[in-house]
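Agenda item 2: nicotinamide-adenine-dinucleotide complex prediction
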Amino acid sequence: MKYNIATVSGDGIGPDIIRETKKVLDCIGIKYNHQFIYIDKLAGGCAIDAVGNCLPGETVEACAKSDGVLLGAVGGPKWDHLPGNERPEQALLGLRKQLGLFANIRPAIVFTELADACPLRKESVDGGLDIMVVRELTGGIYFGEKGSCDTKLGPAAYDIEIYSEEEVRRIAAIAFDMAMKREKKLTSVDKANVLESSRLWRRVITELSVDYPDVELSHMYIDNAAMQLIRNPKQFDVIVTTNMFGDILSDEASMITGSIGMLPSASLGKGNFGMYEPIHGSAPDLAGRDIANPMATILSAAMMLRYSFGLYEEADEIERAVRSVLASGYRTADLMGPGMKPIGTKETGDRVTSFIK
Ligand code: NAD
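Presented output:
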């Protein structure tokens, strides 16, 4: 099969990690007889430098026409002086919005080979940990009406949390489908004891659960969920939550794994289309120095194969190859520990491919 992948390397370490990821995809292509065609496009600071706009129209167009988007990272100190709405990071919001990507999927996996990096007690993650956080991405308080006003106590500001039933239903469907492919457990996180929008959220998700009788649905308040993730993370399989709660919980879940260079993510819309990127930023301090860890991006490509292209075996193979590199004791600087063998960005890509060939 032939797949068109829009590749947006972006800034900082973006080009380094995308280069290694293409290497791994090409290797999968040869082994499984697929053709991956890359359409390289600009976004972020490099696009500002080249065309004066962090998200050129032709980038959005190419992404929309592609079968999937693979993104490195954007931003860096060079563009920090720009006003908020002109900064490179706006490219991410623009892409999500214009491509209709309303669900952010982040696995938080503690690889048994990296269990020492986890900041929790060893028994909390014994045997590894695998949680999937599904966050609503285009609604809620971040996109509700906002403004300032005068009150009896003086000047004030407000942001409104608003969710329509349809917005809740479509993110919940993604989470239920995800749970069906995993352990069939879904925890919906809200603040229904206080917020009207959370009561609607909970009602719509409960209604939808009738269509998924095999999935065990539970509800949890956000404050309790934040605590339970630290106390007993293994109780979770799939978590679904709002934009703001998800922003916080997905970072918390990621940090449990202790290794920012290992974590992929996907932003999905209706159908199979998605944008795939590591959760970390552009790490400008590491750019072009052959020290960044490309594994999060390589694992993002595996997610693309699984969720957008339906290539399950190929995705599993990439994930197995990553684990094999770790199991052989090779580590980039961010994961380095006693007795481990140091490798750089390029060698990581080479070693992952060597386990695929
Ligand atoms: P960052 O994720 O770039 O870096 C945080 C720390 O993690 C740094 O010490 C960095 O060296 C390290 N790190 C990150 N990725 C790594 C990797 N693959 N291998 C090894 N070490 C890695 O976050 P930051 O420093 O807050 O932000 C830097 C820039 O990235 C900023 O301009 C920020 O706005 C941008 N940013 C972009 C995205 C994105 O494109 N999705 C996300 C977050 C931050």
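Discussion summary: The mean pLDDT is 95.
Owner for follow-up: CH.
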